[in-house]
């Protein structure tokens, strides 16, 4: 099935021999892959309130799915977003790069310049704001982060540059809280008070941009409690479904999202649970070069499709981003998810 969603029945023209130079050396810029008619028709039938996309875009393995041929990853990182955005199913993207280091207005503006008018971005807040620990190069916590959930830093290093640089291409701001040390997990009231102060400041800064969604993703199941939903509602934010091995399955996260109803859906399908909570490296090795479905997860896909159909059917927006680590190839997962959404809407 995954092949029929992408493969056009018309035979493609002969490709250059494997020893030929990559397209990055043969032409300037990145060109999109031709879109099979069935996939284009399916994209046109999806609810307009739904935006699906990938977690970043610089994967050479998407040759003939998103790109028209072989490109180097560095070329795709710099120039591939415009070609990515021409794919009819890819109406959003998660800018993950901002999590590791704050981006500037000009960096965001370069992304915006590659995007069509109807495209919207999901952007992650820098970890200097959302991680309670300063981490060593191996990822282990080294010391407490004095800037954890600092409202002013969030406004100046994240919200302001995204607004100025992306403009109307900004769709969602995601505050992903890294796994918390016990010191914070044992003091949920203090944590929630600090998070509420940050979200209130961010929402105030977005007063003239009410269309921008503010979402919080967590990596600690202990936080999925009514008090968390209460603070999100009071601050005008929502819960980001984080489908990841560190979190419970999607069905166990949905009650918190229902507590915020009515409201939008923000979901990041990050990692197939079969790889466990620390399985990113294993998933990368199993899925490279990210060109096919290798770890299918039909249960999550079906539940997510029904959730999307219900939320968009009630007039609410849905942003869903998918990682290659979810099933092996984000564009193919998105195509299968789109098919499942259409089936759920007609059921």
From TrEMBL:
Which SUPFAM superfamilies does this one have?
A: TM1631-like
Which lineage?
Answer: Bacteria, Pseudomonadati, Pseudomonadota, Betaproteobacteria, Burkholderiales
Q: Which organism is it from?
A: Acidovorax bellezanensis
Q: Which residue stretches belong to region Disordered?
A: 1-34
Q: Name the chain's protein.
A: DUF72 domain-containing protein
**UniProt xrefs under Gene3D superfamilies:** Protein of unknown function UPF0759
- Pfam families, per database record: DUF72
């Amino acid at each position: 099935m995954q092949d029929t969603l992408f493969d056009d029945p018309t035979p493609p023209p002969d490709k250059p021999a494997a020893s030929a130079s990559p397209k990055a050396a043969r032409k300037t810029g990145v060109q999109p892959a031709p879109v099979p008619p069935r996939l284009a028709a399916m994209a046109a039938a999806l609810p307009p309130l739904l935006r699906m996309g990938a977690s970043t875009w610089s994967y050479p393995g998407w040759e003939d799915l998103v790109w028209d041929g072989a490109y180097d990853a560095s070329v795709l990182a710099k120039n591939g977003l415009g070609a990515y955005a021409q794919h009819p199913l890819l109406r959003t993207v998660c800018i993950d790069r901002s999590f590791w280091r704050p981006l500037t207005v000009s960096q965001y503006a370069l992304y915006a310049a590659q995007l069509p008018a109807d495209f919207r971005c999901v952007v992650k807040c820098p970890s200097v704001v959302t991680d309670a620990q300063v981490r060593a190069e191996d990822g282990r916590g080294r010391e407490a982060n004095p800037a954890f959930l600092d409202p002013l830093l969030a406004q100046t290093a994240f919200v302001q540059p995204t607004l100025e640089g992306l403009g109307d291409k900004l769709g969602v701001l995601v505050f992903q809280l890294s796994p918390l040390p016990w010191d914070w997990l044992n003091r949920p009231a203090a944590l929630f008070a600090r998070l509420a102060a940050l979200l209130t400041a961010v929402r105030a800064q977005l007063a003239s941009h009410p269309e921008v969604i503010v979402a919080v993703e967590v990596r600690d199941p202990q936080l999925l409690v009514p008090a968390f939903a209460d603070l999100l509602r009071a601050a005008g934010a929502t819960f980001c479904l984080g489908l990841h091995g560190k979190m419970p399955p999607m069905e166990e996260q949905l009650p918190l999202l229902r507590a915020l109803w009515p409201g939008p859906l923000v979901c990041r399908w990050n990692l197939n649970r079969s790889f466990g909570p620390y399985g990113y490296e294993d998933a990368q090795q199993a899925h490279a070069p990210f060109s096919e479905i290798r770890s299918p997860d039909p249960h999550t896909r079906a539940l997510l499709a029904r959730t999307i159909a219900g939320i968009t059917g009630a007039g609410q927006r849905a942003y869903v981003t998918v990682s290659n680590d979810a099933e092996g190839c984000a564009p193919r997962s998105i195509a299968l998810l789109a098919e499942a959404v259409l089936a759920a809407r007609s059921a």
